[in-house]
Amino acid sequence: MSHDHTHGHNCGDHAHDHDHDHDHDQGGPGPSDNVYAHIDRDNVIALNSTGEGKEVIKPWNERLDERAYLESDADDQLILRVPFTGSVKLRALLLKTGPGDQTPAKVALFANVDNLDFNDAAEKEPLQQFDVAVGREIGEYALKPAKFPNVSSVTLFFPASQGAETTRIYYVGFLGHWSERKSEPVITVYESQANLADHEKIQGTVDGGFNLPSI
């Protein structure tokens, strides 16, 4: 099968700090700091995928639903870029993947990086990287808030499956604190004194100065 991107597996430091969805009520509203409502769902982008990225951005009560999912296309690599409607301080990544060897081996996270492709993802050092646990429940991966303090978008790179030809993702969610993005103030500078060098020359003058009559 032909591949439409270059492979690279630059694995930096990775963590094993994750938990499973045992404590949250499946029918309840979920964690109070779930930022699902602040994801710009229509602009979620998936690369090397058979479906649209937004299919795995689900409300809490649909997180275990396996009818909608993303699956890698040409091979087992997958990139998912998730933009937010404001600024988010992230504390956790939520994942439901699999089944079995279609579970991604790792997930690498990058913040505020637009247009990240597979070559970039393989060469660039991620802010954090995790081994992904095999299981049909939700895995919660603790992020270091100091590394994700002001996030407008987060990109997930899944470099390989755990043995299958393709990788499958059912659910992606995030926990953290959302705040409205502050726009840059527009500063208008007024000239306190006109500078003739900055303006068109006055007609009937020489070099922008007055042409004085000779004596």
Mean pLDDT: 83
Number of strand elements: 9
User: Could you name the ranges where pLDDT drops below 50 across 5 or more consecutive residues?
Assistant: 6-16, 21-25, 198-208
Shape: globular
Radius of gyration: 25 Å
Multimerization status: single chain
What can you see in these coordinates?
Helix content is 3%, strand content 29%. With 215 residues, the protein is mainly β. Strands 1, 2, 3, 4, 5, 6, 7, 8 and 9 form a nine-stranded antiparallel sheet that branches. The longest helix has 6 residues, at 118-123. It is globular, with a radius of gyration of 25 Å. The model is unreliable at 6-16, 21-25 and 198-208 (pLDDT under 50).
State the main characteristics:
215 residues, nine-stranded antiparallel sheet, 1 helix, 9 strands
Short précis:
With 215 residues, the protein is mainly β.
Topology:
Blueprint: E1 18-20, E2 45-47, E3 70-71, E4 78-97, E5 106-111, H1 118-123, E6 128-131, E7 139-142, E8 151-158, E9 168-179
Antiparallel strand pairs: 1-7, 2-4, 3-9, 4-7, 4-8, 4-9, 5-6, 5-8
